[in-house]
Write a structure and sequence with these properties.
Blueprint (H helix, E strand, L loop, with lengths): L1 H5 L3 H22 L4 H7 L5
């Protein structure tokens, strides 16, 4: 029913759902505090 309401195929609907789940996971990861290794990497002297 969702695919029909969006006017796309079931496969495209599943692909959209998977993409949304991945984006939500990326957003959650970005909201998390950095761990010590990530802080060290970001503070590394490149020179």
């Amino acid at each position: 029913m969702l695919a029909a309401s969006l006017g796309v195929s079931v496969g495209d609907t599943v692909a959209l759902a998977v993409r949304r789940l991945r984006q939500d996971r990326i957003g959650a990861d970005l909201r998390d505090d950095l761990n010590a290794a990530e802080v060290d990497w970001l503070d590394a002297d490149l020179g």
